Amino acid sequence: MARIVECVPNISEGRDTTIINAVVDEVKRFKVRLLDVESDRDHNRSVITYVGEPEEVEKATFALAAKAVELIDMEKHKGEHPRIGALDVVPFVPITGVDMKECIAMAERVGKKIADELKVPVYLYEEAAKRPECQNLAEIRKGEYEGLKDAISLPARRPDFGEAKLHPTAGATVVGAREPLVAFNVNLGTKDIAIAKKIAQAVRFSSGGFRFVKAMGFDIKEKGYVQVSMNLTKFKGTPIFRVYEAIKAEADRYGVPIIGSEVIGLLPLEALVQCADFYLKLDNFKYDQILEVKLWQ
Predict the structure, then answer these.
(1) 81 in catalytic set
(2) Looking at 43, 77, 81, 167, which residue is catalytic?
(3) Which of 42, 60, 99, 255 is paired with 51 by a 20 to 30 Å CA distance?
(4) The CATH fold of domain 182-296
(5) Which of 59, 81, 174 is nearest to 120 (CA)?
(6) CB atoms within 10 A of CB 158
């Protein structure tokens, strides 16, 4: 059986294609398969997805990290998405022939190498977290890049690797291991950011919403609407359709339409099959009724 790990680095650059391409080109130097590059100007962020054998994925990830640290200046960075560094977050995801324990070990090795060789402090998160408060990425990102400049010296905010001070231009980085997630955004037909924030509060777990949902409200100024931006950390526990219907109901309360939605990066086929099953009210539908799935078997 092939040993395949997915890596999904998020870099704090979504506008300058020269920088984005230079970072992505580092990945191409290794024996990994580049699956997707998605850049967002409003969030000023790019999500890069690649897969391969663990050893090659590790090499590609460190090379990507080095280039991001070299080219991205956080002192000049502005964007809607919360962030603490040039290479903001790096999750390793087990796909086939690799378990979570191995991905945790990868996160630890890569995190230490980034801190030792690039002089960027690193936090470990999700399954790789050494402290309960670091399991949740949002807790690590509190105050973002600007606030972390002072907070990083506090005992509760010290990094897992490296000195307790930000890199002068690259900030800090979060590295971890997790299950596949779905990054799903819902766009609302209003410019009122307060509505997006109230709806995000209603659906996210930390404020009483769905168990596996992280959500924030963003103002997408260039496009003239607001957005509920989410990570569904375990789509089998909280499927896309359930969150979408809840957002729709909340938006109706404010007299606001949903004008679209989007998936950021890649997602498992099963997550979309769940939606088809729900909205089409399929009876006795089986996963292997999908043509492509049958061909893969």
Answers:
(1) yes
(2) 81
(3) 42
(4) Alpha-Beta Plaits (3.30.70)
(5) 174
(6) 15
